[in-house]
Specification:
The protein is an alpha+beta fold. About 15% of the residues lie in helices and about 30% in strands. The N and C termini lie far apart (about 70 Å).
Length: about 150
Amino acid sequence: MAAPVPPTDCDYGIWLTAPSVSGGKSWIGFRTSSNVEVHWGKINQVNQHKTVDLNRSFPRTVLADMARKKFAKGYQVAREWDSKNGWIDTGTSRTGRQQQPLPPPPSPPESPIHHSEPSKKGFNRLTVVQAVNTWLNSPSKGSSEKDLPDEWF
């Protein structure tokens, strides 16, 4: 995909990509003095966009906040753009230094519920099928649990 053209008064841009079953996704954000433009879609088919005005309700950090949410969904930086250097390839930041890889996601907490194995002490080897057949063939069908032998429970 050709590098997207930033707006005329853009001071920073970021291009993120993520794998998908359809071949990959792109998310591109540009920050200007008055708004943030976001473009997204399949790789080579970035055809959706949105503009967010930067006023008192949206600080200038809105682009960074949006990108942070994309990182959490598996997106990675493909390129960055600034008015001095233009597009900078993957792996380098605006300062030209190598970017640090994202830390791995935290492992899920251990479940507080601990399941223990049922006790096999006193286990009767009578199978469920045998128990049901015995009950169905007994003269008192529909009897309660108190009428059944203790070893069945």
